[in-house]
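Postdoc handover notes: sequence design on the structure in folder B. Input tokens:
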């Protein structure tokens, strides 16, 4: 016999300990059982959950999650990169791509402001390693259609430098969203960020999108922490070379006989990507053991 007070759904918003859950039979505003807090578990936006009498009683297994903002079960992370104002920050982009690879979330790059600057370098670096790169031109509706098709039927998150145009693009993809946007601050050289909490927006064409705080708001280790031993596995272009290094424990940063460094020298691995890897490796070496727990 079915308990009519029981249902399941997806958390689409979390604010002040109150969760908004979308289920087949309606939208619920509810709280979570205290037992989750006692176990050190927090419901995340994107979680599939069971409700009983308007209370979250079970969180179903997640396929992935990022720590902050707290999002679960993402299909793809979409990195909004502008050609200028602000200019691309390849280190931060590579850090977020590494997090996506680490969490088995598909990374995608979307370029904005293509009418104001050159996008060829972004394509050169990321097309080469098999990451999908799209360009957006608001004068060409077909480019917006490409983003709509990318999002359809999936749970996605937009992220990127403040001022790169995340909210503007979301509103172009689905005008019913009406996500607030902010003017570029000329003094700061970046947008005044307008996203204050994690929330999934349901799209007209199916799927959900989360608008997340910009790169300037959070350090990537707030999303997750990657140990130095695991880092090379988050740079997909290194995989075919890393087994050919002279030393089994090669860090791929400076060693003689490193097959990865040799590939960089031959132009087979992007120098900027390897520089990002080395910077991240040095940062990972500085992590204290308590930070890794």
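Designed sequence:
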């Amino acid at each position: 016999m079915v308990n009519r007070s029981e249902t399941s759904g997806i958390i689409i918003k979390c604010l002040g300990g109150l969760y908004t859950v979308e289920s087949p039979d309606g939208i619920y505003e509810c709280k979570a059982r205290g037992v989750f807090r006692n176990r050190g578990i927090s419901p995340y936006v994107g979680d599939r959950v069971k409700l009983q009498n308007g209370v979250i009683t079970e969180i179903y297994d997640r396929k992935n999650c990022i720590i902050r903002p707290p999002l679960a079960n993402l299909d793809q992370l979409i990195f909004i990169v502008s050609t200028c104002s602000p200019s691309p920050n390849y280190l931060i982009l590579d850090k977020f791509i590494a997090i996506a690879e680490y969490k088995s979330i598909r990374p995608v790059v979307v370029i904005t402001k293509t009418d104001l600057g050159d996008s060829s370098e972004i394509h050169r670096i990321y097309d080469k390693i098999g990451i999908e790169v799209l360009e957006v031109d608001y004068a060409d509706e077909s480019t917006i259609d490409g983003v709509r098709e990318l999002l359809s039927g999936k749970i996605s998150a937009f992220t990127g430098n403040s001022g790169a145009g995340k909210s503007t693009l979301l509103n172009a993809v689905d005008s019913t969203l009406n996500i607030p946007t902010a003017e570029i601050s000329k003094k700061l050289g970046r947008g005044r960020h307008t996203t204050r909490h994690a929330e999934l927006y349901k799209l007209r064409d199916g799927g959900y999108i989360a608008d997340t705080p910009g790169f300037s708001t959070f350090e990537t280790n707030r999303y997750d922490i990657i140990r130095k031993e695991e880092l090379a596995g988050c740079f997909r272009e290194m995989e075919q070379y890393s087994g050919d290094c002279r030393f089994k424990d090669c860090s791929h940063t400076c060693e003689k006989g490193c097959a990865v460094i040799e590939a960089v020298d031959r132009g087979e691995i992007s120098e900027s990507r390897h520089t990002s890897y080395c910077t991240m490796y040095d940062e990972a070496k500085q992590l204290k053991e308590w930070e890794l727990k």
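Context for whoever picks this up: The first helix runs from residue 34 to 38. Don't rerun without checking with the PI first.
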